[in-house]
């Protein structure tokens, strides 16, 4: 499940205690969809107009001002847009996806300040690793606040992905959590699954995502603590370096993050055997990979 309002309230409450992304016919109408009227400036037009990169204003109660991609509804009439044009649109967020429609130009143009995650520079002196390389032995805290080393998971196949708990866009971090939930359920139900295997969700929001916050986040996805670990660290060097190793790019933007997606599969020796570079991978593919490595 994605971050529901109740989950967001729980996360906010925990953070306070610790510190004192009309439905169109082509889309499934779902109970509880959130609908927002938004204004923003087009930064780029991609996939023949199916995806717009927009520098949008704050969406009160949902998302800070940031630059992010929006999927255009399939029923939205074609509109000729250019970078720098200001637009108004409706943003609808369902359980597992979101889309925009009702796009109208305001007649205003503004400067383009595209912040594409892929344009974020790589950390200096951090090697970019590929399939066949051993992932360094980084230190984290697990959801119980216990210090761990990645080497502690040697001897079993490991899949790791990167998230931040305040990510509101269903196609990003919540999608990675949902997919891990499905992978976990599939492996637990498969008699041919390895005896031991591990999923790791690692936060790159170093100062907000404490072990307590990560625990609450994981509970919303039915996480089994035996198979699925939630890792965090207050050492920015750690997350910057492991991110640099696998091509994860993220940057703090006005209290939120622009970021790409990475899911990494390690064999029993900690060697990278698969690297998914976006969020489009299939659950069945990861399940098969984990079984093969077991």
Briefly summarize what is shown.
By secondary structure, this protein is an alpha+beta fold. Helix content is 21%, strand content 29%.
Topology at a glance:
Layout: H1 5-18, E1 34-46, E2 51-56, E3 66-71, E4 85-93, E5 98-109, E6 139-141, E7 147-149, E8 158-163, H2 173-189, E9 198-203, H3 211-219, E10 228-231, H4 236-246, E11 250-253, E12 256-259, E13 263-266, E14 272-276, H5 283-293
Parallel strand pairs: 8-9, 9-10
Antiparallel strand pairs: 1-2, 1-4, 2-3, 4-5, 6-7, 8-13, 11-12, 13-14
Helix pairs in contact: 1-3, 2-5
Report on the architecture of this protein.
- 21% of the residues lie in helices and 29% in strands.
- The protein is an alpha+beta fold and 294 residues long.
- The strands form 4 sheets. The chain has a 5-stranded antiparallel sheet, with no helix packed on it. A 5-stranded mixed sheet has the order 10-9-8-13-14.
- Helix 2 links the parallel strand 8 and strand 9.
């Amino acid at each position: 499940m994605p971050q529901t309002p109740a989950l967001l309230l729980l996360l906010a409450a925990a953070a306070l205690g610790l510190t004192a992304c009309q439905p169109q016919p082509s889309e499934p109408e779902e109970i509880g969809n959130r609908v927002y009227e938004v204004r923003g400036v087009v930064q780029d037009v991609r996939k023949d107009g199916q995806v717009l990169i927009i520098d949008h204003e704050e969406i009160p109660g949902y998302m800070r001002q940031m630059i992010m991609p929006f999927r255009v509804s399939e029923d939205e009439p074609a509109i000729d847009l250019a970078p720098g044009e200001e637009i108004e649109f409706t943003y609808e967020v369902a359980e597992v996806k979101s889309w925009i429609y009702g796009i109208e130009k305001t007649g205003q143009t503004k400067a383009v300040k595209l912040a594409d995650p892929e344009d974020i520079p790589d950390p200096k002196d951090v090697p970019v690793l590929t399939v066949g390389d051993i992932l360094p032995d980084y230190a984290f805290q697990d959801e119980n606040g216990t210090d761990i080393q990645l080497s502690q998971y040697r001897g079993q196949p490991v899949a790791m992905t990167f998230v931040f708990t305040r990510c509101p866009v269903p196609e990003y971090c919540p999608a990675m959590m949902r997919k891990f939930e499905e992978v976990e359920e599939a492996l637990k139900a498969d008699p041919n699954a390895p005896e031991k295997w591990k999923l790791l969700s690692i936060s790159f929001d170093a100062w907000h995502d404490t072990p307590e916050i990560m625990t609450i986040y994981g509970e919303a996805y039915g996480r089994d603590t035996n198979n699925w670990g939630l890792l965090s660290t207050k050492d920015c060097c750690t997350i910057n370096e492991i991110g640099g190793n696998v091509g994860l790019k993220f940057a703090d933007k006005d209290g939120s993050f622009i970021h790409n997606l990475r899911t990494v599969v390690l064999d029993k020796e900690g060697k990278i055997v698969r690297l998914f570079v976006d969020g489009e991978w299939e659950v069945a593919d990861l399940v098969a990979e984990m079984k093969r490595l077991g």
